Each structure stands twice: as structure tokens, then as C-alpha cells.
Amino acid sequence: MLNDGIRFFDLRFAFNPTNSTLVFWHSEALQSETATVPDVLFAFYKWLDDHPTETLLLSFMYESSTTAWAHNNAAVQAQLFAALTSDAAKRYIDQTHNALPTLGAARGKIILLRRFVLDQLNSTYEAALPGLSFPPSAWLDDNRDFSITYNPSHNLSAYIEDYYEPDDVPAGLGAATNIAAKLNATAAHLQKAASGVAPDGLFITFSSAERDADEPAVYPKIMALGNGTDVPGVNQQLVPVIQGLKGKRLGVVVLDFFEMPGTLVPAILGI
Question: Would you list the DSSP string of 169-201?
């Protein structure tokens, strides 16, 4: 992914099933039994050593729907804090608090996006963390367009589209209608970013979604890539939208199944 141009990673953490180490999950799906949070961070550090002019954005969020006995307790939060404040982390994670660094300062660094709070620890722990604070209480669920002010004193905000399940679309209308709803939300947010509004704002647009509970189900792969016959997915339909915005600010564009079509990532990168 890194060598294909991906620079933003949406990382969901929780304890492993034995409540001993932090690993990565997606809902109830354990991504790996052995790749711990510190392990993956060191892989990012190594890549930055090999690519010192690059910058990565890592979004960390506690995944609450892993197992019935899982809790975001002090032990979880202490392990996360240790991973993000180790000597190695302090070398590679940009230490700016609640502001984006300049591009020059960010080269060879990770910008931390904190979609978590350390509310089971003393307040000094969270205050010691660098990066941008996007607390779960401020992140609106399944929303087409919202903002989070991560630095009130300097009026610095992020503008976000995270419409991950178009369940306001009437049930049973099928893939084409659900894909169109997600595409429209994604395209509208990209066009807002490109318009020049909020010139100091950070724009984050998620192109991924699903409607698993619909009948027929619209799984993430169908949403991204289409049904394989007559309905193209968000990814294919997004290419001309992005190409039409070439040279304008897009912000962060988060993708599912980013490899297809092969023109999508180059269009986002403007190459």
C-alpha cells in the first residue's frame, strides 16, 4: 500500500482475545493475532527511514465491537500511550500539538490523528500526546458532512465525510441506488474541498461504505467496485470526478480496494 501511494491509514485497535497485547480489528474481525500495534508502528518507521521525504497520517481509533468481554479500560489505554510515546515514537511521530506541521517539518514523520481519548488515565497522559484530537464524541456517526474544531484557540478545524452506510436510502433498492447515494456524498465533499472554502482546514473524505443489512446486501467490495456486471462501483465513478478537480485541493481521500481501477490513485495524486 505504501509503495502504491497510500499515505493515510485508518487503524482500529483493541486488546487481543487474551487481553494481553494491542492488535488491530475491524468490528469483530481480528486482522492479525501477531501484528501488534508496536510492531506495525515499527514497520511504518522503517518505511520512513527508506523514504525520508514522505509523510504518513495515522488515525487511531478504539474498536469497541470486538468481543463481548472487551473494554476500553486503563490497561488498553496505558499500552496505547506507551506505544505512542516510546523513544522511537518520539523520533518518528511529529510532536506538534493540535496543529498541522509545515510540509518541510513533516517530511519523514507521522502525523497522529487521535480518534480516541485516554479517559481512564490521569489527564496528563492525554495532554502529553501530539497530533490532532478527534474525540469519539465529536465524530458524528454515518454523516455526509461535519466538522471538528481540533484547536479552538486558533480556530483550526477538520471537515469530514464519513457516510459509511446509506441506510437513509429506502430498503431493497439494490446496489445502484446505494452506490449512487455514497458517490454523491463523496463527490460533494471533494468538491467542497476543491472550492477553496476553509483554506486552512483539513478535509477528510471516506469513499468506503457498505449496506450489508439491505436485501440484496451491498457489501464493501460491491460498494467500491460494483456488482461485476451492469453497476460500476464508487471507485470507478469517482475517477472522472477527481480528474475534473485536477490541480485543486482534495485533502485526504480514504479508499477501499484502492487498487481498482488502476487510474484512481494516480488521479488523486494528480499524476
Answer: SPTT--HHHHHHHHHHHHHHHHHHHHTT-STTP
